[in-house]
Amino acid sequence: MMRVRIALSCYLIVMAAPGQQAMAGETITLEETINTALSNNPNLKQFRLQTTSANYSVGIALSEFQVSVRPEGGVFVEKAGDTSGFYGLRLSKKTRYGSEVSVAGTSDSLFGTDGRERFRIEFSQPLFRNAGTLVNEENIVRARQSQLTALRALELGRSRLVVSVVEAYEQVLRLEQQLAADRQALQRAASLYKLTLAKERLGRTTRIDSLRVQLQQGETISRTSYTEEQLASAKRVLAELMGIKNGTLPDLQPSSLFEVEVGSVEAATRLAIANRMEYAQAQQQYQDAVRATRIAKRYKQPNLKLVAAYEHANGDLFFDDDLNGSRNAWTVSLVSDTDLNQNREKLQYRESLVQQDQALETIRAQHLSIGREVEQALLAYQRAHNELSILEGNFQHAEARLKLARRLFRVGRTDGFSVTDAEQAYFTAQTSWLNGQSDASISGYRLLHATGTLVESPDYLKPEFQ
């Protein structure tokens, strides 16, 4: 198992108030930045709206089995000018087994008092194709599956947002450090250029050295301007991720090195298989395909329905005078609209089998993909942290070399080329060191994202089996 050494509370979604407090302060920490982004990020709000829409879809599907109340009525105008009409009310309820019960009462006395009143109770039950919960609850199951899909998309969006915020946060810090280093390099370049000109006038160096130093000074000015441009862009990206409208960021507090205690690739892969939302979604799609196959097989059966009804009226129910002795009528019937040519149903069943196999292969592909992603993230994390000591040592060596070269050039024991070369090496080592620090912290978050443990998610959204 993997355990985070530094506590990460980014999974706690806070409302806008903490984010506003963070904006009001002079500085903001990485944790506060993450929490603000999780509360205010526009894209994440869209995911939340999708989950709300999915919740309504479940309610819509459940409403099919609620009591239905429908008014009934009509008006008839005959050729002779006589007008008649009826009105009434119908109540019905459908069960999840396919059966339906309805009660209706009507009266023909819409325009008079001598109309006939009728009362009818009807019960219907599918016998083969549409009987049972498998077919009749399909809309509810699909709505709930869509709800789970939306929730998983939200959790995956939260995890990706955390990684994006960390990357943007570290980018801003790195560019701020780079800008400070570039400005120091500008001061050193100006000082070196003055010293080189002085030595050139005294004949202790050549015009070539002065031109080389002047060229390096111009490159440093250009590099500083480019760093300022990158820093402004990085701050804008971070502000957008946090949902800050004015785009103004407070000062960022430097973040400590984020470290994660990791085990083997196999252990990390097992952890990812048990937590990744993509794997859980692939499993859900396979379950949907299996259920669709069962339904397609059911549709090959006859569509036969049993209907039983009782009707009572205060007038004649039949046109035949011999049958009008009773004002009560009981009927039982079998209704079917089955098409004897079932070629369509057979093809749909075969298609569902193919889709089921495709869903199973998707699970296998996800398993392999997750294993590859975890291994790459783990190797990147280990490489980034192992290189830190090397990059730090290179930076210290380059700094010592630059100081020595400038000192020797000042006393005339070396030429300007040694100084400019040491300055370029120092810049390269410094950039690599700053990038290495940033990559080492980001790689830890990326590794947790690859294992599906960066943010805390409900267990019912995680994979059911491995």
What does this structure look like?
There is one protein chain. With 466 residues, the protein is an alpha+beta fold. The protein has a domain of 298 residues: Outer membrane efflux proteins (OEP) (Up-down Bundle), CATH 1.20.1600.10. The protein contains ten helices and ten strands. The strands form three sheets. A six-stranded antiparallel sheet has the order 3-4-5-6-9-10, with no helix packed on it. A two-stranded antiparallel sheet has the order 1-8. Helix 2 packs across helix 5, helix 5 runs antiparallel to helix 8 and helix 9 packs antiparallel against helix 10.
Please sum up the structure shown.
The protein has helices spanning 16-24, 30-40, 42-62, 133-136, 138-201, 207-242, 265-273, 277-298, 343-410, 416-451; strands spanning 3-4, 27-28, 68-77, 83-94, 100-107, 117-126, 251-252, 260-261, 304-313, 328-336. It has 466 residues and is of the alpha+beta class. Helix 2 (30-40) crosses helix 5 (138-201) and helix 5 runs antiparallel to helix 10.
